[in-house]
């Protein structure tokens, strides 16, 4: 029986464990915290639960237009209940995952894991496991999966103190909403929290080191979000690199590299994550971490060392829970000799959970505009969609991209309140190489937002294509 040890019990680790157990391997997960990993306990799940509450408030802002009068001044946020719900759901989901993997026969050890091979190049690997009480156990493995995830990056001049200078994992310990939150970093994490706290009625200033929010996302989508921010009174400081954050009597001062100073009551640091690869004994197996400490893997999650695989955020390959899970499963299928297709990153669907949401799949507009990928494109504003008008939605759009000659769908973007749900038909088309004709001829419900997707397909149909 193949002995598999998995370091880390996040989506990469636990999904891998389920696959390996299903294929009859002897599987152990070593997780120092709780199953579900940082994803379930501190990052993805808590943030989306918090956003569910802020989203409920966001909807109330727009009710007046639909003829429903609400007194927003009378609406209050019961923060202990919101935070209690965030933490409770995370713990419950972690417990569910633990029960599920244990039901499948996986051994779960709550401890810190590191490689302890006597020398690199051995066929059997040794994983040393240190329990909280200091006792040490040694595990032999034919295959090891490194799935240790990542941790918030700390700027030396802005070390989180859990009171005024916070990382996103400390937010749910606040007893009151911040009066004025400076969000440092405008990547996906920063944008999501800036949007959520804005909806919660908090004054927010986003500190973006670039010329816009969401520098890695679709530029038109980012522009919509900036419009919403402006409308709701959220400020975006652009070309603003935070050098340090100092505590003052009343709150914090964010000192920017160009000399500007932003005052706020709290600072939320969202300046990225670093992989948890520094203290896991990589040198004992002969793995040299790449730039930033990430572990290089191929498309079936192999590292440079036989018998050692890596998956998830510690590899730096699209830091998404869905990608981590798929990398973990692929590693196990490969290790156990099952037929496996290498991961295809061009088909990954992702969503930014702002209001409105921004969902993307496949080739980006930027790759098309730069000439890297030839494609025909269409952008339909939601304002032209009958259902959107009924719902009072003025912002947002559907973009669809297809190959010039064949009409095969290669990507798309949806900006809408439920973009995370609406992106699926486009993702299905990209994954299965469907054409714009397939979308065009599909019945969508009338009236519906998804009607804009089939309409985009119709507008990209070209019978006179000679290329
Ligand atoms: C605020 C935020 C929101 C996000 N929202 C989304 C989202 O909506 N959708 C999405 O797809 N992705 C989201 N992500 C990304 C997603 O959380 C990560 O991609 C995902 O957690 C990666 O899973 P993983 O298994 O690689 O690592 P993790 O979830 O980080 O799990 C790794 C686990 O390994 C443990 N570990 C580390 N070292 C050791 C060791 N030596 N021994 C034992 N255990 C160890 C850690 O304690 C941790 O529990 C979000 C990220 C952030 C920061
Ligand atoms: N909804 C989701 O799926 C979701 C949510 C959150 C995060 N994630 C994923 O997690 C990964 C990390 O995202 P992230 O947003 O946490 O990190 P990131 O690295 O993508 O963004 C951090 C941003 O902070 C900026 N920055 C760094 N130092 C700065 C400074 N001193 N001053 C001002 N700005 C500074 C960087 O330029 C960058 O734009 C991404 O791959 C993302 O897709 C996904």
Automatic annotation (TrEMBL):
Membrane-spanning residues where?
Answer: none
- A Pfam family matched in the record: Pyr_redox_dim
Q: Does the keyword Nucleotide-binding apply?
A: yes
Q: Which family does it belong to?
A: Belongs to the class-I pyridine nucleotide-disulfide oxidoreductase family.
Q: Where is the FAD/NAD(P)-binding domain?
A: 3-328
Taking every annotated instance into account, which residue ranges of this chain make up the domain Pyridine nucleotide-disulphide oxidoreductase dimerisation? Answer: 349-456
Annotated NAD(+) binding sites = 185-192, 272
Supply the InterPro entries for this chain: FAD/NAD-bd_sf, FAD/NAD-binding_dom, FAD/NAD-linked_Rdtase_dimer_sf, Pyr_nuc-diS_OxRdtase, Pyr_nucl-diS_OxRdtase_dimer
Q: Which domain of life is it from?
A: Bacteria
Give GO MF terms, alphabetically: flavin adenine dinucleotide binding; NAD(P)H dehydrogenase (quinone) activity
Q: Which cofactor does it need?
A: FAD
Say yes or no: keyword Cell cycle present.
no
This protein's name: NAD(P)H-quinone dehydrogenase
Q: Which UniProt keywords apply?
A: FAD, Flavoprotein, NAD, Nucleotide-binding
The entry's free-text remark on the cofactor is: Binds 1 FAD per subunit.
Please name every pair of cysteines joined by a disulfide bond in this record.
Answer: 39-44
Q: Which residues bind FAD?
A: 48, 313
């Amino acid at each position: 029986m193949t002995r598999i040890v998995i370091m880390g019990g996040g989506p990469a680790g636990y999904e891998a464990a389920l696959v390996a157990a299903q294929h009859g391997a002897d599987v152990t997960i070593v997780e120092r915290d709780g199953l579900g990993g940082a994803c379930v306990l501190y990052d993805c799940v808590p943030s989306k639960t918090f956003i569910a509450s802020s989203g409920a408030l966001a909807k109330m802002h727009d009710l007046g237009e639909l003829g429903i009068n609400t007194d927003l001044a009378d609406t209050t946020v019961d923060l202990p209940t919101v935070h209690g719900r965030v933490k409770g759901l995370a713990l419950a989901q972690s417990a569910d995952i633990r029960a599920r993997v244990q039901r499948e026969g996986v051994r779960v050890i709550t401890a810190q894991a590191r490689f302890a091979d006597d020398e690199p190049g051995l066929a059997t690997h040794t994983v040393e496991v240190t329990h909280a009480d200091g006792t040490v156990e040694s595990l032999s493995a034919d295959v090891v999966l490194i799935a240790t995830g990542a941790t918030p990056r700390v700027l030396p001049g802005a070390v989180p103190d859990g009171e005024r200078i916070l990382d996103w994992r400390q937010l749910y310990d606040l007893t009151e909403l911040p009066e004025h939150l400076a969000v440092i970093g405008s990547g996906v994490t920063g944008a999501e929290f800036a949007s959520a706290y804005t909806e919660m009625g908090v004054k927010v200033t986003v500190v973006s080191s670039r010329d816009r929010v969401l520098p890695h996302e679709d530029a038109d989508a980012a522009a919509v979000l900036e419009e919403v921010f402006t409308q709701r009174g959220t400020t975006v400081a652009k070309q603003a690199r935070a050098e340090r954050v100092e505590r003052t009597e009343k709150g914090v001062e964010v000192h920017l590299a160009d000399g500007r100073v932003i005052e706020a009551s709290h600072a939320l640091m969202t300046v990225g994550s670093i992989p948890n690869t520094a203290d896991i004994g990589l040198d004992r197996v002969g793995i040299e971490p790449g730039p930033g400490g990430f572990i290089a893997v191929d498309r079936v999650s192999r590292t440079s060392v036989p018998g050692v695989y890596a998956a998830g955020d510690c590899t730096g390959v699209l830091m998404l829970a869905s990608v981590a899970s798929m990398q973990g499963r692929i590693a196990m299928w490969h290790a156990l000799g099952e037929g496996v297709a290498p991961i295809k990153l061009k088909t990954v669907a992702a969503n930014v959970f702002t209001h409105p949401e921004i969902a993307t799949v496949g080739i980006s507009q930027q790759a098309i505009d730069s000439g890297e990928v030839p494609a025909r494109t269409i952008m339909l504003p939601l304002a032209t969609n009958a259902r959107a008008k009924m719902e009072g939605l003025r912002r947002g759009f559907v973009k669809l991209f297809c190959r010039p000659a064949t009409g095969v769908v290669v990507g798309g973007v949806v900006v809408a309140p439920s973009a995370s749900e609406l992106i699926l038909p486009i993702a299905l088309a990209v994954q299965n190489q469907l054409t714009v004709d397939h979308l065009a001829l599909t019945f969508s419900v009338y009236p519906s937002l998804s009607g804009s997707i089939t309409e985009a397909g119709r507008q990209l149909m070209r019978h006179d294509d000679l290329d």
